[in-house]
Specification:
mainly beta; Pdz3 Domain; globular; 141 residues; 40% strand; ten-stranded antiparallel beta sheet
Length: 141
């Protein structure tokens, strides 16, 4: 499998998006995760709104045939324009499952771990996009 690596530098904020280059394009109406509880979202200071991720039937049907992953974590419901999350490359629909090398199971753990991101070192955030693993490196400006 080939690997896609996209890196940008904005001021003091260096970011890299790393994941499979052969990932399938987004398909409308084919959400793989939804908020476990409708309306139970929280806005976090890195410029994203998250909720507890719940897999959909579309994901369970495609897991094996498309070699996708199923993970617990926080679903990114929205990103703020110009926020750290958006600049890093996170998008609505991504599922954050690890922050700084520590697995996160829900939006509360994700919020706590993301609040530790500093401005002097990169923090790796692992997430799924369309069921495939990626990572970004975050650093506060």
């Amino acid at each position: 499998m080939s690997t896609l690596r996209h890196a940008v530098t904005i001021g003091s904020l260096g970011i890299a998006l790393i994941g499979p280059a052969d990932a399938a394009p987004a398909q409308t109406g084919d959400a793989l995760y939804v908020c476990a509880v409708a309306g139970a979202t929280r806005t976090i200071d890195v410029g994203a709104t998250i909720c507890d991720a719940a897999p959909t039937d579309a994901l369970t049907k495609r897991l094996e045939p498309d070699n996708l992953q199923l993970r617990a974590g926080a679903l990114v419901a929205a990103v703020t324009n110009g926020g750290v999350a958006q600049v890093a490359g996170l998008q609505a629909g991504d599922v954050i499952y690890r922050v700084g090398g520590v697995d996160v199971e829900d939006n509360i753990e994700t919020t706590a771990r993301l609040s530790l991101i500093g401005g002097t070192a990169d923090t790796v955030v692992n997430f799924l996009r369309r069921g495939r693993p990626y990572l970004v490196k975050l650093r506060r400006p």
